[in-house]
Design goal:
About 30% of the residues lie in helices and about 20% in strands. It has about 400 residues and is α+β, with helices and mostly antiparallel strands.
Length: about 400
């Protein structure tokens, strides 16, 4: 057994020959560049790339496998330079009936062991999606229906960023996942928390007590890879081992969830669209404390306060710790050139965030920035909460 880092929600912006996949993602985010970034700069050992059902991306994957540096394995996944296992995934937006009778929508992460599986899944989803070449497109089916299609092709379905106010289950569709999945809810073995929540918030909802929690980056650019990630205990890097870790089988497990302090997320607190401000009043905020308007984007913290059914956030025994971490890009005074210097000196962002001592970091970036990096490691930085699609930030102190 050994310990590895995994980020399981990484987008593709464009294909290698510049065909659009995720419109809001960086052009540099293609399959090959993601693999290189994970190995050379981030120190990630399992990467979930979640736009692989696009026929254009499938073409890139097939070309990638021809160059000799990557190969598929029987236990599932594509191995790159013997250091990284790429899990092939697809983010699908499903159509859901809300309690008020209106239509809701939610994102689902679907992961598959082999290229042939996701190719077959792509072919079937063409019947339900108007443009299969683009990322995160709306399907004309519900998650209740989707989970059977995913299972048909040997995959698993994990609800994505479940609390965000847009395109998520708890944030936009329901107060209970079991109402969506009904008798199939037992097939949902894990959920993705999202940047604006954490373990302690999610564990106030009793139906999640036996679900594994994942913290992933939802990266829309190369630098954003591994802003959230998971530490796994597994025997080797493969889809099969990843699945065992999700199920806590045979001593495979999630050891830690590394994530942003939820205050740094884009939707942690409620936001008034009229006053153009984050509202940090008494929880839960359901209208603006200035203009009294209900034209708001509900914050994750406020939404959980409304739908929770437990008075404490006590976690089940198997739940790993949630470790707050501040990515280098959030640290004041750390620009792209300085981060490049750190990476050149210490190898990967994982090393800088977790292993390198204060004196060595200080020798590269100076005393103040080095101490801010260490404070981030220790959870001692002062933060300003985000909301309404605007990230929180580390305050200059």
């Amino acid at each position: 057994m050994y310990e590895i880092f995994a980020d399981l929600h990484i987008h593709i912006g464009r294909t290698k020959n510049n065909k659009p996949i995720k419109i809001t993602a960086a052009r540099s985010l293609n399959f090959e560049n993601i693999a290189k970034e994970c190995v050379e700069r981030k120190g990630i050992n399992i990467a979930g790339i979640i736009d692989c059902a696009s026929p254009y991306v499938i073409e890139d994957i097939e070309e990638f496998l021809k160059n000799g540096e990557a190969y598929e394995i029987e236990d599932g996944g594509i191995i790159y330079k013997d250091k990284l296992c790429i899990i092939l995934g697809s983010e699908i937006e499903t159509s859901e009936e809300r309690p008020d009778g209106k239509k809701g929508c939610a994102h689902n992460l679907c992961y598959f062991p082999h290229l042939k599986d996701i190719k077959a899944f792509s072919k079937e989803m063409e019947k339900h999606i108007s443009n299969i070449t683009l990322s995160s497109q709306r399907a004309d089916i519900s998650a209740y229906e989707l989970i059977d299609i995913v299972e048909k092709y040997n995959g698993i379905l994990i609800p994505a960023h479940v609390f965000t106010p847009h395109k998520s289950f708890y944030g936009h569709c329901t107060d209970r996942l079991e109402k969506i999945f009904r008798e199939k809810f037992k097939k949902v073995i894990a959920i993705e928390l999202g940047l604006s929540s954490d373990t302690y918030l999610a564990d106030q909802i009793s139906e999640l007590e036996n679900k594994t929690f994942l913290t992933n980056s939802d990266a829309h650019s190369l630098p954003k890879i591994a802003r959230e990630y998971n530490k796994l205990q597994i025997k080797d890097i493969s889809f099969k081992e990843f699945l065992k870790a999700l199920k806590n089988q045979d001593n495979r497990k999630i050891l830690c969830n590394y994530g942003l302090d939820p205050k740094l997320g884009k939707y942690h607190r409620t936001y008034c669209e009229i006053c153009d401000k984050t509202i940090e009043g008494k929880i839960p905020v359901t209208k603006c404390d200035t203009c009294d308007s209900k034209n708001i984007t509900m914050g994750v913290l406020d939404r959980i306060q409304i739908i929770k059914d437990k008075q404490s956030s006590r976690s089940p025994m198997f739940r790993p710790p949630y470790i707050y971490q501040i990515p280098l890009t959030f640290i004041p005074g750390l620009g792209a050139k300085t981060i490049e210097k750190l990476l050149n000196q210490f190898g990967t962002e994982m090393n800088i965030l977790h292993k390198i001592n204060l004196d060595d970091i200080e020798a590269v970036v100076g005393e103040k920035t080095a101490r801010d990096i260490m404070k981030g490691r220790e959870g001692k930085l002062k933060l300003e909460a985000g909301g309404g699609g605007i990230y929180g930030k580390v305050c200059n102190v």
